[in-house]
Amino acid sequence: MNGITTITTKGQVTIPEPIRRALHVKIGDKVSFTHVAPTYREVVIKIIPATVVENLSGSLSARVREVDPQKARKRASSLLVKKYKVK
Q: Where in the numbering of this chain does the SpoVT-AbrB domain appear (predicted)?
């Protein structure tokens, strides 16, 4: 399946409808550009479903490790006070 589109003056492109349908692209999905090969002028475009963000919630490491959001905010606040020497 092929699709040709034109780059706008703002550097934007529209993913052709047959491609969007085949990939089940929805409004709010993200697009990732990976495996850039400048020599061949090629790039791989990956669709990241909007729901993936929800699925990744909590997967990143942080200096503050608290399950309770209020405790986490309080701990982060104390670290920032120390870092920026706020009284």
A: 5-53
